[in-house]
Amino acid sequence: MNRYEKGMATRREVLGDAHVDRAEAAKTDFDAPFQTMITEGAWGTLWADDTIGLRERSMLTLALLAATGSFDEIPMHIRATARTGATREDVMQAFLHVAVYAGVPRANHAIRLAKATFAEMEKEEAGDD
């Protein structure tokens, strides 16, 4: 399996088929090079490495996204916790670290996003969408 194929498999494992299928359907000639780069680099190299598990990668990713103010990506990675094994308590611990090391406002915003996303996920599980 080449790095792209490994990346696509890991991406599907973490984000789910529906998310990846939507992203692939939205891909254009313009952003195809970027999609290839993140599939090979982020998913085929970093996330596919087994030095640490998917749970820990989820926690690190969420903390880094919050710490850098990359809030648009947080809901997607909160949804991924259902497949990576990171619990709500794990997510809160990651955001508590953000509060101490990167600032309370960033952690507060990330927590609001997480709460809203977890609530959406509960509604979807209950069939109330």
Write a structural description.
The chain is mainly α and 129 residues long. 78% of the residues lie in helices and 0% in strands. The chain contains 7 helices and no strands. It has helices spanning 3-15, 17-26, 32-46, 54-67, 74-84, 88-101, 104-126. It is globular and about 40 Å long.
Q: Please work out how many helical segments DSSP would assign.
A: 7
Provide the structure class. Answer: mainly alpha
Rg, Å, rounded: 15 Å
What's the total count of β strands?
0
Shape: globular
- Helical percent range? over 70%
- The unreliable regions are none
Residues in β-strands, percent: under 5%
**Average residue-wise pLDDT:** 96
Major sheet attributes = none
* Sequence of secondary-structure elements: HHHHHHH
C-alpha end-to-end distance: 38 Å
